[in-house]
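so im writing up the methods section and need the Phosphate transport system permease protein PstA record in one place, dumping it here so i stop losing it
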Amino acid sequence: MSTLSTLDESALPTTAPSDDFGGKSSARAVKDQVARVVMWAAFLVALIPLVWILGSAVFKGGQMLLDLTWWTHSQNGITSRREGGGAVHAIQGTLIQAGVTALISVPIGVLTAIYLVEYGRGRLAKTVSFMVDILTGIPSIVAALFVYAVWVTTFGFQRLPIAVCLALTMLMIPTVVRSTEEMLKLVPNELREASYALGVPKWKTIMKIVIPTSFSGIVTGVLLGLARVMGETAPLIILGPYTAVIATNLFDGLMPTLPTMIFQSYGESVQPSVDRVWGASLTLILLVFLLNIAGRFISRFSKVRN
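--- predicted struct ---
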């Protein structure tokens, strides 16, 4: 026993490792502090333009939103140099076009994501994924010109609000597909395997297990897509010019929206028009904010509970 004890003691290191570990810990602590400072600095730098934009919109456009006529009247009969009027016509047009665009885009985007994650194998799935990648990077004006070439030039139809919805659909679908695809991939395979072990068909597993589990993420992706299309201007200018009256028919005449109202008023460099530009901008920001709040509530109350 004494010999073994002597051998064991001789095999131990002669220097204490605490200094070495302490040096490494100090280096890691310095790196951690540096990374933390860099992260906070990047966050503050990214926050500056956001606060600047929001502050400018609230400061310059808040007074317009406080006037009740802004929410109840249109700009019908209001000239560029005349104060007054409202934005109810543009708000209605924006919501109608966004709703129809979502009605077309969400089923297509969600079903495409389900195919890519749950069923997609081989060349067809790669082709679909490649086309989604192309649509993700397409500029909005290219989508508008494509729809114009098909809708107006080829078929000879008039420029209508429904054509705007088709162009916006091309921009919203890839956002919904990619966000839904990522959310479906986060669903643990154990849930699918447990459902299959109980004899549940695959389509019912997707409908009852996979989609409810990832529903909050899907809603977030839909809201991101809506936020993008509600602020687009190029398709609206090319396919649906601005009008100052209330119009709710997607298949007849023109339909005003907040982006086209901003674009139209911005070209008239007089103070009443400038005020309407900031008021419409703040209204658009407020609508997107309310949509995100609504999505938070929907996803919170729609989570799968044990």
